[in-house]
Design a protein that fits this description.
The protein is an alpha+beta fold. The chain folds into 2 domains: about 80 residues, 2-Layer Sandwich (Alpha-Beta Plaits); about 80 residues, ACT-like. Chain A, domain 2 (Alpha-Beta Plaits, 2-Layer Sandwich), CATH 3.30.70. It is built from 4 helices and 8 strands. A 4-stranded antiparallel β-sheet has the order 2-3-1-4. The chain has a 4-stranded antiparallel β-sheet with strand order 6-7-5-8, covered by helices on one side. The longest helix is centred in the middle third of the chain and has 14 residues. The radius of gyration is 19 Å and the shape is elongated. The two termini are about 40 Å apart.
Length: about 170
């Protein structure tokens, strides 16, 4: 059995009702744990791309890819695990019941991390981040240790393969 690690798949599927349920049903039916799943349309309105994160060993991951390939609605399965990719996730953090000094600290954190303050109120600030999962984890830890009243919402990661540097 291989080493258990985080793995990523880009799954191109027909953009039809029920496809997401079938794909997620495959994972739950086989007791595979999804760590991340995002879905969006591609440049073709009839095709969606799913970015799927899973933690598994080599054998299980190969089974997942084979089973996804057998689904009628699946157009293409791309293993992103060992490819050079660009990956980000969206995160919103609402910091509530803050003092003016804490608000200034929220702005400093936003500037340091290169994230946006997208809304502000008398005693609240809303931050938006599109960093990597690791950087968002670090940001969350800092926010939790700095502020008492925060709400954090995270979306799944989206990824795209990097550009080739070879001559064509």
């Amino acid at each position: 059995m291989g080493k258990v690690k985080n793995r990523w798949i880009a799954l191109y599927v027909e953009n039809e009702v029920g496809v997401l349920a079938k794909v997620s049903g495959l994972f739950s039916g086989k007791s595979y744990n999804l760590s991340s799943l995002t879905v969006g349309t591609t440049e073709h309105e009839d095709i969606s791309r799913m970015t799927i994160g899973v933690t598994s060993d080599d054998v299980t991951f190969e089974q997942i890819k084979k089973q996804l390939n057998t689904m009628v609605e699946v157009i293409k399965v791309v293993d992103l695990t060992d490819l050079p990719i660009h990956m980000k996730e969206v995160l919103f953090a609402k910091i509530k019941r803050i003092t003016p000094e804490e608000k200034a600290e929220a702005f400093r954190i936003a500037q340091t991390y290169g994230i946006s303050v997208i809304d502000i109120d008398r005693d609240a600030v809303l931050l938006e981040s599109t960093l990597t999962e690791r950087r968002n984890n670090e940001l969350c830890a800092l926010l939790r240790s700095t502020f008492s009243h925060i709400d954090i919402v995270r979306g799944g990661a989206v990824a795209i393969e990097g550009l080739s540097t070879s001559c064509r």
